[in-house]
Amino acid sequence: MNRGLLETESLSRTYHPGTSSEVRALSDVSLAIPAGSYVVLDGPSGSGKTTLLSLLGALDRPTSGRVRFADRNLEDCSDVELARQRRRMGFVFQDFSLIPRLPTWENITYPQIPRGLSAAKRRQAADDVLSRLGLAAKADTPPEELSGGEQQRVAVARALIGDPEVIFADEPTSNLDRRAAAELAAILQEINAAGTTLVVSTHDTDLKESASLVFLLEDGRLRDDTA
Amino acid sequence: MSSLLSIARTGSAAILLSPLRSSVTVMAVIAVLVPYLVGIGLVEGLRQESRIAIGAGTPAEKELLPDLYVAANQFGRRVPIPLELAEPIRKFDGVTRVIPRIVGRITLGKENVEAVLVGMPREELQRRGSSIQRLTRLIDGQLPRSQHGEAPQLVIGSGLARKLDNLQVGTVIPPIFRSGGGEKTPRITGIFQSEISPWQSQMILTTFESAAEIFDQRGLATDLLVFCRQGQPEAIRSRILQSLTGSSTKAAASHQPSVTSRTDLESLLPAGLGHREGVFNLLFVIAFAIGILVILVTSGFGRPERRREIGILKATGWQTDEILIRSLVESLLLGLVSAAVAILVALAWLKWFNGFWIAGIFLAGVETQPAIAVPYVLAAQPAGLAVLVACLLVTTGSAYSTWRTAVTPPAEAMR
Amino acid sequence: MTSDSSNRLLAVIAILVIAAGVAVAHYRQPVPPRAADAAGFQQLVGGLGFGPSVELSTCPVQFDPRLETTCNARTGPIPAGGLLCPGCGRFLFSFSSRSATHLTGPSATRNVLAP
To answer: Is residue C53 part of a domain?
Structure first.
């Protein structure tokens, strides 16, 4: 197997280990994601898709196993280094995870603040991304005044703004109507076409059809016939 | 540097992102600080009034106030001093004047309203009254002139006037005493202006002669006010103690003198915020401890949102230290706002509401709605301490929960 | 919630802090006319009133230590009552009646057993 942008080796994650509520969410998952690919993580609810996505995106630490991102072992990284790795990634969450009351353009550029960009430069960058996603007119609107589809596009804009090497999207279309889901699928395809690696967990057939690689998860394990 | 500034600026924005949490936190801190500031404001005001009462720092007034106060003790307790003891003191070198004074406690009316009756010699009152410019600023009416055997003339305090059904100048009040000379009907010749001093509130000023008649105590005074030439008080004090203690006269032999100088009184003034006897400081330490608990509880307002927000920041590349800086700036700004508002509220409470309710708690004998102009001073030291306490309270209340969330993996914080 | 709102908030905070600072600067001393009147009152009564009480019923020593030097209620029935008198314990501005004892002068202390 070619060395990928992202690789996992015997990756496991157990929640509340050693207690009566212990849950083994992921067991012994090894996979490789090449740079520039469009990867879909498929599987029924509770199969471990979100857990795997969190571990790949350095949002969580594994119980055992390794995650390698661009030749760097994430489990060896300090808290500060992990934060730096996350700046090279973008995230789109199922529930959008936007900050209420904060206008769209500020929501999008909030990750840029620690980089010392002036408000004017951040605004410019936000306007550029929002134009690409057809939301230029909504720059000053807070998320709670946007539709579900618009909010998810804002989340995509936030993921795009740092020019990431990889974007992770967790069930990005599950809270959207058919039309909005189709629009988002097109946007994601466009992003991937521009060279950004995409890792998407989904049941959506439109998204699966666009994928170059599909991993099927079942009970926290990767199915042997996957990919 | 610019990134640090940018992060710091998000601290102020964070206040607006959680308006409920911010306003509850500010209100909790204000609730802790205002009683402290009002209380310390009263202490400082009273301290200034006390300094004026002993003429501290004002040479011109020192001339007009006694240098020594001579009283008598028997069996280690304070007793009236016989007037005959004034004579030997008058003859001491360096003594310019000796004035007897009566200060006693009486109750008035059906409700037994407490009053402090002060008697000063008639001529002395007139002499002092004429030397004070614009006496009307002190008294609404006239000074008492009643002589022995006449109906007493009284100047009463503003608090007494209000408590006794809003007494007016010229009112004749029912007899307040029954002495060997029989009943007499006192007349109000004046009322102290409310703003001149807190101690005028329950005071009745009359002539020495009338006071002696009211208490039915002839030939006695509460204390002797001794005026000395400059630089002489200490020597005269020693002389009074030596000569009267060893005197062969009957009165002197049975009464042991005690002499108080203004310097003695000055040394009693509570020293700043650290004075040991101020139970208030103890109360404030308790209030501070409770304040931290209150802030911990109030910081729970909007905690799930705050946890999620921190999770989002971490997920999008913010570092733990950057999140802590943001939270620190937010806490400091909230602390500053709280302290500033608390200072302004305390000032309003003291100045415009005249210490309504709280003055009655801290000053004995003062009503809920004070009849005196409550003395206050907003000193820089307690105000600075209030800022420090406010910032410390808010920071302490939020630092731990923010740090805990910031070191939690984002996936868990956002769950 | 824009940068403008944040700027406005900072401006409000600055105004409040400045207002509080000005208030402290202005009211850190008693207003002069009041001090003059208070001095006039003290001249009239020969110097009377020194503590946090305006009458003699609760604790005469807290009205003026020239009148009394000890507080009879100092060991009142409250926790730590040996330290605090229930009457004067509530006062902010209370001075030690132990310190006030020295005002009785050397002759009186001959009659008092030292604790």
So the answer is: yes
Give me A128's structure tokens: 């550029």
Same domain, B6 and B110: no
Q: Same domain, yes or no, for B167 and B298?
A: no
- Are B73 and B34 in the same domain? no
**How far is CA A6 from each of CA A201, A220, B218, C87, rounded to the nearest angstrom?**
15, 19, 106, 76
Taking only the tens of pLDDT, chain A with its 227 residues reads: 456 899 999 999 999 998 999 999 999 999 999 999 999 999 999 999 999 999 999 999 999 999 999 989 998 999 999 999 999 999 999 999 999 889 999 999 999 999 888 889 999 999 999 999 999 999 999 999 999 999 999 999 999 998 999 999 999 998 889 998 999 999 999 999 999 999 999 988 888 888 999 999 999 999 865 55
Contact assessment for residue B207 and residue B143, using Cβ atoms and an 8 Å cutoff? no
Residues 6+ away with beta carbon under 8 Å from A163: none
Q: H or E segment at B79?
A: strand B77-79
The domain boundary residue, chosen from B212, B234, B268: B268
CA-based nearest distance C75→chain B, Å: 14
Q: Are residues B217 and B365 in the same domain?
A: no
Structural domain count, chain B: 2
Q: Does A106 touch chain C (CB under 8 A)?
A: yes
Backbone angles phi and psi of B322, in degrees to 5: -70, -40
- Distance between CA atoms of residues B112 and B115, nearest Å: 9
Q: What is the ipTM score, two decimals?
A: 0.92
B204 forms bridges with which residues in the sheet? Answer: B117, B156
Which of residues B131 and B7 earns the better pLDDT score? Answer: B7
Chosen domain end from B216, B249, B268: B268
Residue B287 burial by Cβ neighbours in a 10 Å radius (0-12, 13-18, 19+): middle
Domain of C76, in residue numbers? 47-104
- Which residues of chain A lie closer than 8 angstroms to C1, CB-CB? 101-103, 106, 142
Residues in C closer than 8 angstroms to B13, CB to CB, are 1, 3, 5-6, 9
Contacts with C3 from chain A: Cβ below 8 Å: 106, 119
**Chain A residue numbers touching B6 (CB-CB < 8 A):** 113-114, 116-118
Q: Is residue B280 located within the same domain as residue B204?
A: no
Rg (CA), chain A: 17
Tell me if C4 is assigned to some domain.
no
Q: Do B86 and B35 share a structural domain?
A: no
Inter-chain CB pairs, B–C, below 8 Å:
283
Residues of chain A with Cβ-Cβ distance to B405 below 8 Å are none
| Residue C88 covered by a domain | yes
Q: Which residues of B touch A (CB under 8 A)?
A: 2-3, 6-7, 10, 13, 16-17, 305, 308-309, 311-322, 407, 409-412, 414
Over residues B290-299, mean pLDDT: 71
B116 shares its domain with B234: yes
User: How many domains does chain C fold into?
Assistant: 1
Quick: pLDDT tens for C13-71: 999 999 999 999 999 877 666 778 888 999 999 999 988 888 888 778 878 888 887 66
**Chains touching chain C, criterion 3+ CB pairs below 8 Å:** A, B
Structural domain boundaries enclosing B129: 59-268
Q: How many CA atoms lie within 13 A of B116 on its CB side?
A: 28
Verify whether the Cβ–Cβ distance C1 to A140 is below 8 Å: no
The residue in chain B having the minimum alpha-carbon distance to the alpha carbon of residue C111 is: B76
Query: What is residue C83's DSSP assignment?
Result: T
- Give the number of residues written for chain B: 415
CA A13 – CA B88 distance, rounded (Å): 100
